[in-house]
Structure formats: structure tokens, C-alpha cells
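Exercise: predict the structure of this protein bound to ME8.
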Amino acid sequence: MKSFYITTPIYYVNGKPHIGHSYTSVLADMLTRYHALEGDEVFFLTGTDEHGDKIARSAEKEGTDPQTLADRYAKEFKVLWDMLDVKYSEFIRTTDESHKQVVQRVLQKIYDKGDIYFGEYGGYYCCGCERFYAENELEDGICPQHKTKPEYVKEKNYFFKMSRYLPWLKEYITEHPDFIQPSHYRNEVLALLQQETLEDLCISRPKSRLTWGIELPFDTDYVCYVWFDALLNYISGIGYPDSPCFDTFWPHAEHIIAKDILKPHAIFWPCMLASAEIPLFKKLYVHGYWLSKDTKLSKSLGNAIDPALLINQYGVDAIRYFLLRDMSFGSDANFSLSSLASRITAELANDIGNLFSRTLAMIAKYCDSKVPQPGQYTQHDECIQQTILEHIAMYKQHCRQVAPAKALENLVAIASCANKYIDANAPWTLYKEKQEERLATVLYLVLEALRKLAIALLPVVPSTAKTMLALLGITSPLGITLQEEERIWGKLPVGTVLAPSANLFPREQWEKPMDLIEVATPKEEKTYISFEQFSLVDMRVGTVISATKVENARSLLLLHVDVGEDNPRTILSGIAEKYTPTDMVGKRVIVVVNLQPKKIRGIESHGMILTVGEGNDIYLLEPSDVCMNGSRIV
Ligand code: ME8
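Solution:
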């Protein structure tokens, strides 16, 4: 029995999952289901990346602690994976105790062998990416991913001697052309390795700046850099170092990621493994971005689409199918509701759905709802049979090579081949002319094509494919396999009683009014509130009387604001990356005064200052000078 181990990135817990995350996870799920149908022993690992600056800052901004934030979003991911029928073997969270132990163990091992040293470093730090940038990597001083200005940070830290392993890595990637796929990403990595600007990797953060991380086992004043911690999930999640599961699956590890995190996976991770004397993973598969109007869908850019709304409108299988079918693996794809609707209408409803319903209707009408006994195949029949077998073989090859869109192309081709075969052979005429044997042969051939199609669709649209199989009289999952399906023909037993008809992809579902779905598009992401609800928000004009920085909280200022009451209000505001205390004194602000008081860092905050943006790109909303303190905003 072969083993198959697939991973997705572990996602950050600073926001809800969107279509981009859904794509990677649905793809990993499809491949897992595919390999299981091939008889392989499978393991699918996914999870959440919960430490680091980004999460600490998000928690601070939301007025909560990082663990609570992580718990909330880890749950959101799990709920979505359930909705999307994504069946992982293990969901790892980097705050799991077992993961922390693995991280500390590996750090100690690398430290003991002399691959970690202490030094000083200055660089441009992008919190969104959780990494330092060299000046020449920035575009006009701006992070190319997040379009924000990184801050210059200089501090003493621990460094991993990555440079020691780079020549080996370059040679390995050169000699193993399949290691990183598709090949343009491999070339990108080789170009990076060629530049020789790669430095050792800073793998710590001083606790004076960040406490939300795994403590270094050799210096308790520091926590581990989040990427070093996160990448190790791929081995801690299967029980490194001594679980049999690790021995079984690690040699077969295949990672799926998008191009945003190519460098950590293609460079940091192999070097970390080499240093820790752990064998390299098998493959790295890199896909492009889902875009909305040519811009990457992302939490931080605020244009993310809520998959739950799409699932409610179109059904889970239609969404899975669309994602896998519409992105050519390795390239970017544009997400739009019109491409979604046209793809699923054309292929799921028309080609595949229609084929099922018309065939079953004919079996009911002409064959008493039973699988007929075929007669002799003509040369044309044999040719069609051969074409279908070839499509199954190609489908399997594309699945093994992680080319989902191409794999699905082969399945659509089976449906269209069968539809054309029906049209060419006109079973309704054969029935009228009482050519019973020919009628039975034609319909049997189509039913066998349907059986193969349904099995091959199991990894893609699991619940619809199960329904398809049930319609064909195959109700038990036992014995369903894809093995040999590119060679054998005629497994559908003659005499099986079939369902009279089927409406597998009810088009009314996605042709109903689009209002619901419009809510999911970026600009109108939120649902409406009533006028009465809005009028409950009490916003007042105020003036900042005093301002101080909150200790150990990078983004927080403690303000006292006069909002026309007897005493100034104490308000904590996450604006310290943009505004200094001196900037703030005397500033006119708009304050939500009836927000429930909240304790942050031991200080109770009694209101919220209105701002636009985030991080160091945040701006205060300032009222006109003529407005008195305490005036209500209506
Ligand atoms: O990077 N198109 O987490 P993350 C396609 N925690 N895929 C997308 C996408 C888009 N627009 N947006 C996100 C992290 N993805 C780290 C990973 S792994 C050890 C640590 C998918 O929440 C895609 O798989 O930012 C991408 O690589 C991943 O989500 C990034 O998720």
C-alpha cells in the first residue's frame, strides 16, 4: 500500500477564511479523497498559525487577548471546512502543547550543533508578512504584498545559519526538477538562490517587543520567530519525532501553498530540515492567487469573499467544482459571480447533470428501470469505450500531478462524449423501431460511462457523486475504487434497478435572485442595519486632553478625552503606530461613548475613537472646529 501525505498552509487566525483559503483546502481534500480511492493510505494535515506579531496586534486591536482571538478564528476555519466537506485527518494549532514541544526540541537541536548564533540586525519589517525585507525587495519603500510601509527595526536577535545550507539547496533543486512545481516557481526560487543576497534567518523576537510566541529553550528573554514555529507544524502534526505516523507519512510529504509563501517553503524550510537532520519533503506545489478585479483576495486588503454565503446560494459541490475547475494550477484566476454561474451551468447542470437525467429517464421508459444486457459492440462503440477509458487515465494522471482543472476537463469530456453518443445513436428511434438489442447496447455503454464518471467525481463533488452512484444502484461505499478504472469495462451489473430520474444540479438554486450573493461582494460585505439600530450608537465630538503610550503595547495610546461630561473619559486607542502622544494632545476626535467598557492591559476603556485604516496607515476622523465637545453626531 502506498502512502500519501498532503498539507495546506496553516492559516493565520487574524480574520475569517475566504475563497483563497478555501481553494487550497478543497484541493488538498480532493487529492486526499482521490488517493484514498486509489487504495493509498492517506493523511491530510491542515490547521492554524496562531503566534507572532500579526496575531498579537490583531488581538490588541480587537480589544482581546491572542488566545481568545486564535480560538475564535480556529473555530471559523473548522466550521468552514465542515461546510465545504473538507475532511482533514488532523487540525493542528501552533498553540497546541505537542507542537510547542517539537519547536523547542528542534530549536535546541539546531542550537546544540552550532547553527544558531546571537547578533544584531536592522531591516524593514512588514507585520502583515511577519518578515524582514531588504531595501531592494520593497517597491518604492512599500511591501509588495500588503501595500503598506514597513517599519525599520534594529535589535539583537538569534539567527539561523541558513547560508550554510544554501549551496546544497541550490544543487538539490537543480537536480530535482520536480521538487517545486509548476516549473516557473522552481525557476523563481533558483533565481533567488542565484542572487546570493540571501542572509541568515532571524529566528527570534525579544520579549520586550513580543511575548506571544514559543519561548526559545536556550534564552527565556526571547520567543521564536513565527515562521520558524509555523513551518514545523508539518512534522509536529504527524507526531515527530517518534510516532509511527511520522515514519509512515513524512517520506511522502507534499505541501500545497500559494505563491505568497514560496520563499519560506522553498528556502527556509528545506534548510531548517537539513540542519535538524530530517529528510526533505517530497514535493512543493504552488498555486496562483484568486483575484477580484485583478487584485489579490485577501483579509488585509479587505476584498475577501465569504465562502459561506456562496455555499448557501450555490451549494457546496458547485463551489468546490468551480474552484477546482476555474483556476489553472499555478496561474492566477479571477473570481466573479458571472464566471461561477456560467461554469456550473455549462458543465455541472448541462453536460453532467443533463446526461444523468436523460439517461435515467430513458432507462425508466425503455428498459423498465433496469440495467439492460448489452449486445455486440460496434467499431464505433469500441472507439467510444476507448475514448472514455483514456479520459479516465488522463484524469488520474492529472490528479497525481496536481493539475485539478485539467483532471476535470477530462471528466467534462466524458460527459460530452456520452451526450454526443446518445444523440448520434438516438435511443428513442431505436425504441420506436424495436431494435431492442442495439438499444440495450447503447444505453449500457452510456450507463457504464456514468458509473466511471460518478466514481471519478467522488473526490471533487463528494455528496453529489454519492447521489449519482446511488441513482446507479451503488449504495454502499464498500469496494468503490478507482483502481483499474482506466482499463476495465462493464462493472455495472445487468439487471440493477435504477432510479427513474434525477435533478442533480437544480439550476433554480443559482438562478434565484442575486441579492444574497451581492452581500458577499467586497463593497457590500456587511448586512444592513435598521435606522433604529444605527440611532443606538451614541457618537460625540471630543478633544484629547492628555495622551500616553501603554507599556508593552505597540499600537495602544491611553487618552483622556473631553466629551462634554463632568470628567474626561479614559479611552484606549490602537493608533500609536501613527500618532505620538504629543500629536494627540488637543486633537479633535469623534468618540463612540456608549460602547460597553472593556479592560485591555488592565486599563478600562470607556469609548472608541473613530479612525480609518490600520497599523501605521491609520487616520483620525476629525470633526469641524465649530462643533462643541459633547455634540452628538447624527
Ligand atoms: O501565510 N488566492 O497564512 P495565510 C489563493 N500562516 N490562495 C490564497 C489567497 C488568494 N487570494 N489568499 C490566501 C500564512 N490563500 C501563514 C502560512 S504555513 C507554515 C504558514 C491561501 O492565512 C494560500 O494557500 O496568509 C496561501 O498560501 C495561504 O492561504 C496563506 O494563508
